[in-house]
Design goal:
The protein is an alpha+beta fold. It has a domain of 199 residues. Helix content is 34%, strand content 22%. It has a five-stranded antiparallel β-sheet, with helices on both faces. The radius of gyration is 27 Å and the shape is globular.
């Protein structure tokens, strides 16, 4: 009888231990954005990588189909309160819906008056004369005041730049390399004609695990468009799992947290370094299999 009770107590203890371990792992996965976390005990190699995705590229067009752009799906989910946005890819500081949408706003440059209009005596003021030409000998009583710049929210179609943060992990138990995506960020492109600052601006970052949930919950909107067969469109979550997009490496984890173009002294050198980094990772995996 005592042996039976001891065995039952041992079994219950193991069950609680496993449950606690599973809960701890789930909490960790939830906090870092991983959708399918790999236990640390199974990780032989890990490298954190940041990738840029230009949704205008031909290979990426299926997730940027007209009216069903991935940027639109994400932005609308934030508007509905279905998705939480974060300030950066560390996923520690949240953004409200209003703050994120504010990051999508661009100040419209004032056209101002032409040289001919200025020569004719027109002024950019808010006086009662409505910019009428000044008469000779008359003094203007209107105070010149710069026009307040107008701002507007860019269209989801204009948000064609994304950034993916992932861990490339070699799982020694399964003997294969995994892309463990942590976060996906939407960026206001520096090449957007209306972005007069010429600087790439973060709009918001999102946990990959949250995005998978949103994509699965909206199968009619979160579509990877199959141009060859309308009966074989895929969910965006499947498109990421199958890696049905093109990207290029912009940063590999390093002590200074520097991007490749900063390390190698220019955009062109950064592109070459990106290609080399991708080749090095492939070679590393090949060597693991060879030896």
């Amino acid at each position: 009888m005592n042996k039976f009770l001891s065995f039952a107590a041992l079994t219950a203890g193991l069950t609680l231990s496993v449950a606690a371990s599973a809960q701890e792992q789930a909490t960790t996965a939830s906090s870092n954005g991983s959708y399918r976390p790999i236990p640390n005990s199974d990780i032989m190699f890990r490298k954190t990588i940041w990738r840029a995705v230009d949704l205008r590229e031909k290979q990426n067009k299926p997730m940027f189909a007209e009216g069903k752009e991935i940027s639109r799906v994400i932005i609308e989910a934030v508007r509905r309160g279905e998705l939480q946005a974060y300030r950066n890819d560390s996923l520690t500081s949240t953004l409200s819906s209003k703050e994120m949408l504010g990051n999508m706003s661009i100040a419209e440059a004032s056209a101002g008056l032409s040289d001919e209009e200025r020569a004719a005596g027109f002024t950019e003021d808010t006086g009662d004369d409505w910019g009428a030409p000044k008469k000779k000998g008359a003094k203007s009583t209107a105070k010149a005041a710069p026009a307040a710049p107008m701002s507007y929210e860019v269209r989801p179609k204009d948000v064609y730049q994304m950034e993916i943060k992932e861990d490339m992990i070699f799982d020694k138990k399964r003997s294969r390399m995994y892309h463990d995506i942590k976060s996906i960020g939407l960026l206001l492109p520096s090449t957007l004609s209306s972005n007069t600052s010429g600087i790439e601006k973060p709009i918001g970052y999102f946990k990959y695990s949250d995005l998978v949930r949103v994509f699965r919950a909206n199968p009619d909107k979160a579509i990877w468009f199959n141009p060859q067969n309308d009966a074989q469109h895929k969910n965006l979550a499947d498109a990421f799992e199958l890696w049905l997009f093109n990207s290029y490496i912009v940063k590999v984890s390093n002590p200074n947290d520097s991007r490749l173009d900063e390390i190698y002294g220019g955009q062109q050198q950064g592109i070459l370094a990106s290609q080399q980094a991708a080749a090095d990772l492939i070679e590393y995996e090949y060597n693991l299999w060879s030896f």
